[in-house]
């Protein structure tokens, strides 16, 4: 197809955001309402336009061009594809503005009689999803354009006298007007911004009004701006744009009153179709009352739990008994959010629900034996900007109406998140998607809002002015035998000038503090007992103890690691002062670990290295794990990809930098490797010292754990680790 040049005069061109350009001008041929646009024959985007003919027979148009990054382009050739595939060439643009008032002024000057038509076109162009939302702050230009056109084109026509918000953000307006359209129609609500809303309206008789005016009751679909911020409500009457002004002594109904007030007005409304439309709009509003139990069809619903992570989304677990498939949709709503749950939920067997309703007359004969898949778990991601205290509810759509169920959400505490994980089926075929789309982001957001574990230091034993090293001994289980660790350190001259921070995390035995105080006094050690009851694992315990560490170097030491000889700390210090490992940076701060052996003297830790598989995937492996110690031939320090957090010496400032950007995981398994990668990201390196060997007792967990919960936690942690480190691992 050949291009067709158009005879056009672009009167005004305004950038509404980084990607959207609005054009106004005269043209000699029709433009398509929605089509492709090409810039310089290479870059494509969308064009939406509208044309009208003025009284003199001249054709004018408003058009919006949407191309990614358009604000940074200077196209010399703009082609719009028409319905027949031909390209219409627009003249080259000049004098592109960013102030929408320029376009409004141009319309007022050259087409004042067509301002209403221009507003029609602008509302259509800027309200569609094809035009996008622009970047943060760009919506102000769209608002200014629509507001400017509305102020020029809209004329006064009545008042809004009573306003009340429904719980879902919709708005009831009562007042009077000469020409507000009955039935369903779009309106523009002018507040701090100007936004389009659908309205359902009906008139009613008021003896205090002229014959050509009537009372008005309308429901505007939400979320609508707060009633006390609304300045005008613009609507399209038969003869052009008009608006309701806000009555000076308008009445603002209290929350929850709008539904009852609107229902009381239904009997006064005129026009059967319009009255039914308003009645349907009112019935579709949630007023805080549960109505599922009132459904005449065999449908019932119950909730087991709902957890909300503000900024991420909601998790809902419950059951829906619907043997006749009467429910068409289950939607969560609240705070301006609307999300379908049943489109992507996981169904679970709930025989207890079948048994509970087996003898209910409403369900008798309708529950097939063995068909117990009534339970569900579902997630809903929430958009940005929803209030942290927003209220939510479930909406059940039926063939003949809507029913509601309040959705009280628990905050994302440790217990509620564990219950949420325990409710999800790790064997679901969609578990990878559930973790990556819902669970992972929710838990990551919840973790980011958690404060660091609090701690209180209790000095015990001998006072030490300037410690040589700070030893952090985290205790997060019921053990009370750390006196053995203190005895080993007391027998080693390396620890004579060390401060030992025993961190009592969650689950520690009540007698631990007394035992530590007794051992510190007996062995004349400098001990700080750090009470950190919210520290759930050794890594959180280290974070809690770090503010109390006074030495320049910190030794991370698990209570399960026991030395077999003296002087090993000095060997680690020499490796830090003068790293001589092949591949290590001479000036980089170092995190160094010794060899750790199991009790049978087989290898537990001899460095962790990254291994690339045949598929290009990188995994981290413990070298020689389980091998006899005789397999270790190295003598000098070796550079490795990760040290062992069970026993590692590193500079305090390096540890502080690494812990400041700590990843949050559900279990402690990935945290050691994560810490080492953060050490390296902070400019450090990791070393393994082969000739220094300690025994690491292979202890069983003292806390009983749910295997299902353990599996789910591992899946989420695997995703979290990959999300955090995939870029650096790939590099």
Automatic annotation (TrEMBL):
The keyword DNA-binding does not apply. This is Glycosyltransferase. Keywords: Plasmid. The keyword Secreted does not apply.
